[in-house]
Amino acid sequence: MTVMKFKRNKAQLTENLGSREEWKGWWESYGSYRLRPGNHLWLCGGDEVHVHSIDGVNESLIEPVVEGAQSLLDDAGMVFRAIDKGYNADLDCFIKSWMEHSKIDTYIGDEINDRRQESGNTHADIVLMPFHLYQGKSCPTWAWGAGCHVQGCAFIYLPGDRQEDRNRDFIRKVAKHETWHLLTGPEHTHVYGVEGYDDVPDCITLPGCSTMDICEKCMDALKSYWKSLEANMGKKYFR
Ligand SMILES: [Zn+2]
Ligand SMILES: [Zn+2]
Q: What's the CATH number where 168 sits?
């Protein structure tokens, strides 16, 4: 039996599951549980994931981020398209001022979500930045990114020598991993034991993954979750 433990505003799976069907069913119920008025705005209309840089980031690094994001969207057969939007002066200004004035208990994703709501914009955003974002608590310096599904945004952290050309392939993997979080939320799926799936040595949903591949178990999670969003939102998210 699936036990749901409610922690803050998030349902968490707290025990192993016995079959693929239970796993898919849990993700479907998670999809319905997660929907909240005012959130998920990015799912309402458009089908675009905008990829931007701010000042201090080499704009040529937007390309591997677009490729990484699009790779997961294509693997899943989703309608969304990742688009290179170049340098974004508005986000540059907003993020810098937010870093200066943010309170300890605020999350920048909420503010970006609110700003989109005011302007009636329904895309998701991925932003490349030359520092670690301060998000209520200091971000660990080993982190390469963060992604948030409910607010529809992800961040790629590229301070110092991370912008060197030799990191392009790794940045593509980071982008695909953060797009996983953009699509599903905070889950690192491999912490959940589920009977019926083969153990895989590596998968894009694992932190620090060395592959661009996503395993069957994670793909089933993503697809089941989005099927329930389709039903709840009355939209088509798969091609
Ligand atoms: Zn992660
Ligand atoms: Zn996996």
A: 3.40.390.10
